Each structure stands twice: as structure tokens, then as C-alpha cells.
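Feature request, filed as a ticket because there's no other form

It would be nice if the structure record came with a short human-readable summary line next to the C-alpha cells. Right now we just get the raw output. Example of a typical job, pasted below so the devs can see what we mean:
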Amino acid sequence: MQAFPREIFGWTTAQRSRHKARSMVPLAALILAAPSLAFTATPPLAAPPVAVPPAAHMARRPARRGGIIVRIPDSAPSIALPPIDGPRDATRPLVVIDPGHGGHDPGAQNDALDMQEKDLTLAIARAVRDELLKTGRIRVALTRDDDRFLILQERSGIARKMKADLFISIHADAAEQPDVRGATVYTLSDVASDREAARLAAGQNRADIIHGVDLTDKSTAVSSILIDLAQRETMAASARFAELLHREALPHFRFRTPWHRSASLVVLKAPDTPSVLLETGYISNHEDAAWMATKDGRLQLAKGIAAAISVHFARLSTRR
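Raw output as currently delivered:
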């Protein structure tokens, strides 16, 4: 007895007969008779609508008889890589600094001081870049040097494409309690270290869904084991740098207690680039926000971060 596909049980007897007749034609005969024939599955009578993100750019396909045309969103254009400042020697270590938020995503805000996180993080990132360039030994790039929006995987993707040796994402988040102050270093973990880390991860990761695109899970079953092994080593290197950052920066600015937290942050998920997210302070705290907004406050942040980076690469050079 001829087996029918599951979807045709809603068809009429005449439609089933025509399908059966077509299925009995040898495949070779079809190819010889119509070499240019495009093979498409015959649809059910009431095909469900295809959901398409409203912001996606759609590729135009020519009309074709005898099948459904499914227009697939165009691939996102490759993000332009930022310029690299510092020595032209490609063997020198490269640090990619990521000013959090930007464009239509302002991040946290302090309305009383008329301050937005996206502006503060960019000013701090520039200060860190300038301090690192003073060493003459480290190359530096910013994921953004203006007020633009980047999705989270573009930020870490820039570091990977540039083969960065270290990735630092700069933030100045808001806390639920206005009296919370001080810097916090976040490293990647599949499990959040506490409730606040989970809250931060949920808020930061949501930035990728603003455009209706969720990019948080791209691993395939085949490559997941290899990626996991690489990421475990990267996570260990990130945790070592976090310890170093706390030690070297403590003379320059204050930290919260506990100062080190872990969370499943998308921006830190590059499997082969040591990465940390540094909350330089809390924009929701008037004292923290006012201090970070000053030139001296940003200079102290930059000095502490640059000192840790310099020691980090000095350690690596002695191991080689």
C-alpha cells in the first residue's frame, strides 16, 4: 500500500491520487524530462505563516511555479573592525576595551545628575586606552569610539576577529539599593554566583533581543565539547586576571564586597579570549557617579586597570 506523507491526510481523494501517481514516476525520468526542475515539498493546503523578525532585511527571490517561496533574512553585514592604537609591532599584546551600551541603548541612568551609562563607559574606556598607550608596549582598540549600538556578540566578536589577547567590557550599572558603591569584576560562569549576578546577566543579555534576534546559543552538538574545553581554560585565565585586577587597582579605586562575581554574560562568552566585565562603580549612587564623571576619577580608574594589564602581560612573557 502506498504510504502517504503525514501532511496530506487533510487532502481530498483526488489530491491523494495525483500525489500517488507522481510518486510512482521514476526519479531518473523526472531529471531527464526536466533538468532544471527545482525539487520542492508539496505543501499542505493551509500552511502556517512564516514568522519573520520585523527589522530583518529580506533577500528577494524570483517567483517560481509549483512550490512555496520562503524568503530568508540576509546575513548581517560584517562589522567593521576598529583601528588599533599603539606600537605597530603585531607581536605586541592587543587589548580590546568595550564601552558598554551605546546608541539607542543608554544603559543605566542617573536622572538627578543627568547621566547615562553609555556616555560614562565611553569616557572611561578612552581614559584606559590613553593610559595603556603611555606604556608604549601594548596595542589597544575600542569596540566603539562613538555613540553607536553593538549587539553583544559583535562586541566579543570584534575581539576574536582581531585575535585580542584580552577583552575588558566597561560598565557602570545601577543597583537596587542607592547606597551600593564600588567596583565589581565579573567573569563567565554557567551558574550565577548570587542573585545580583543573575540579575545583571539577565539585564545585560537582554540587549541582544532588542532587535528581535537572540544570539546567545550558536553551538552545535558536534563542536560543543571542543568549545567547552577551550572555554574552560579561557575562564580560568579570566579568573586569574580578575584577581590581578583587584590587587593592582585597589590603591586607585574602591571595590565592593564581594568584589568578584560570576554570571552567564553573553559578552564574555568568547571561547578563546580571556574576558572580564568591570563595573567601575554604580551610576545609581550619587557619590560613585559624580566621581566617575570627573577627569581625576576616570584617571584613577585608568591607572588601576592599566597597571593590572601591564602585570598580566609581563607574567605571560616570563612563562614563554
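Something like this underneath would help us a lot:
Confidence is low (pLDDT under 50) at residues 1-11, 19-66, 68-76, 205-223.
Strands lie at 94-99, 109-110, 115-116, 139-142, 166-171, 183-188, 255-263, 275-279.
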